[in-house]
Design a protein that fits this description.
mainly alpha, 9 helices
Length: 190
């Protein structure tokens, strides 16, 4: 036999990888992409060598964190689309996307600015917006979403939401939830 059999990572190695990704998500959200890898290792409870064994460069780690954020966002949109009540699905997307943004504190925007050629961001965004547009169309047809709503209204709300600043993560999350409530009220049929 000349080929190698594929190796499944040991469970402890997989656990370390997940802890590193969780720590990187938190550290990048708090300190930006300039955060040192040592801090990520410390928060993950592993040594720097373990971090570099899984992610040989900070760019590789940031890319993996970004992919996780993109998958989470896409899962939120898919969950909204699957909801049998389109208005409820639309509200769910707003609430959960705003919460995701409150937790990641502009990591996504920072990653896209730092690594503009990492992937086709436009195609990824277009696919999500297309699904949200379909959800909005269904919510309008159900009479719950304002008839004059256009998708750019939601994009403007997302941009405004990114301006939320608060002294603590809990305060930021509370402000984000309040903002989501206000956005939903603004979009609801009068």
């Amino acid at each position: 036999m000349t080929g190698r059999l594929p190796r499944t990572p040991r469970s402890d190695a997989q656990d370390n990888r997940e802890r590193i990704l969780d720590a990187a998500r938190a550290v990048f959200a708090a300190d930006g992409l300039d955060a040192p890898m040592r801090e990520i290792a410390r928060q993950a409870g592993v040594g720097p060598a373990t971090v570099y064994r899984h992610f040989p460069a900070k760019a590789t780690l940031a890319y993996e964190v970004y992919l996780g954020e993109a998958r989470a966002c896409r899962a939120i949109v898919d969950e909204g689309i699957r909801d049998p009540n389109p208005w409820h699905g639309f509200c769910l997307v707003i609430e959960k996307v705003f919460e995701l943004h409150a937790h990641n504190r502009e990591f996504t925007a920072a990653f896209m600015a730092a690594f503009p050629d990492a992937m086709d961001f436009v195609a990824d965004r277009r696919a999500s917006l297309s699904s949200v547009a379909e959800l909005a169309r269904r919510a309008k047809a159900g009479g719950q979403l304002r008839h004059d709503f256009v998708l750019n209204d939601l994009v403007l709300m997302i941009m405004a939401h990114r301006g939320i600043r608060a002294g603590s993560p809990d305060a930021r999350l509370a402000a984000s939830r309040r903002f989501a409530t206000l956005a939903i009220q603004a979009f609801r049929t009068l």
